[in-house]
Amino acid sequence: DAKTTQPTSMDCAEGRAANLPCNHSTISGNEYVYWYRQIHSQGPQYIIHGLKNNETNEMASLIITEDRKSSTLILPHATLRDTAVYYCIVRPRGAAGNKLTFGGGTRVLVKP
Amino acid sequence: ETGVTQTPRHLVMGMTNKKSLKCEQHLGHNAMYWYKQSAKKPLELMFVYNFKEQTENNSVPSRFSPECPNSSHLFLHLHTLQPEDSALYLCASSQDGTSGGVGETQYFGPGTRLLVL
Fold first, then answer.
1. Rounded to an integer, what distance in angstroms lies between the CA atom of residue A28 and that of residue A20?
2. Cα separation of B23 and B29, whole Å?
3. What was the pLDDT predicted at A1?
4. Looking at residues A47-58, what average pLDDT do you find?
5. DSSP letters along A8-60, please?
């Protein structure tokens, strides 16, 4: 019952920006958009999250559309180590948000 | 390094064995979680503990028995497992699981890869 839709896979060139889209058209007002990534056989790594406003940290930027029905994760300068599966997750505030629901994610391959 | 450690990293066990997975978090968090990731399947939440109390059991078979003696440690006791239980078992923690906002961000350990023969 994942609430998000992501492309199955995408390639990007090393050193270029990687833009990962996510659709969450049924998102409600109290739900956050979270991004995690999972490098092969490792635990998921938290990247960034947002509610309404665009967010930036040392790893990435998150752009959320005004109607909040979609978002884009931007890796500004992709490196080979960014090759991973990227998960976009919608989660409510409070105890109901304990249950992170992971979908299939986007398999990103960064090429030299 | 996320501040969440898991041991062992790899485990092979027979169906009649009893083993335990251990998770420890060094982040001062109060909520801890067990997830299962089977091959080619999304992560599935198994158990949630808030302040040492179990608050979620996602219909997990009784051959998996969690234990949370304190907010820093979480165990998953395994007995009479089946080959289909072979998977990556992931532990996560968050500052708390009830308040909302940044305190609910979950941080994952590296996982224990379990093979049941």
1. 21
2. 13
3. 47
4. 94
5. SEEEEETTS-EEEEEE-TT--TTEEEEEEEE-TTS--EEEEEESSS-EE-SS-
A2 contacts chain B (CB < 8 A): yes
Name chain A contacts of B88, Cβ cutoff 8 Å. 41
Distance from CA of B80 to the nearest CA of A (A): 25
Give B68-107 pLDDT, tens digit per residue.
999 999 999 999 999 999 999 999 999 876 655 555 789 9
Could you identify the residue written with the tokens 């497992």? B81
A105: Cβ–Cβ under 8 A, 6 or more apart, which residues? A6, A38, A85, A86, A87, A88, B42
Closest residue, chain A, to B99 (C-alpha): A94
CB A99 within 8 A of CB B98: no
Contacts of B89 (CB under 8 A, 6+ apart): B6, B21, B34, B35, B36, B37, B76, B111, B112, B113, B114
A4 burial level (CB within 10 Å; 0-12, 13-18, 19+): buried
d(CA B5, CA A98): 20
B16-20, B50-54, B82-86, B106-110: the lowest-pLDDT one: B50-54
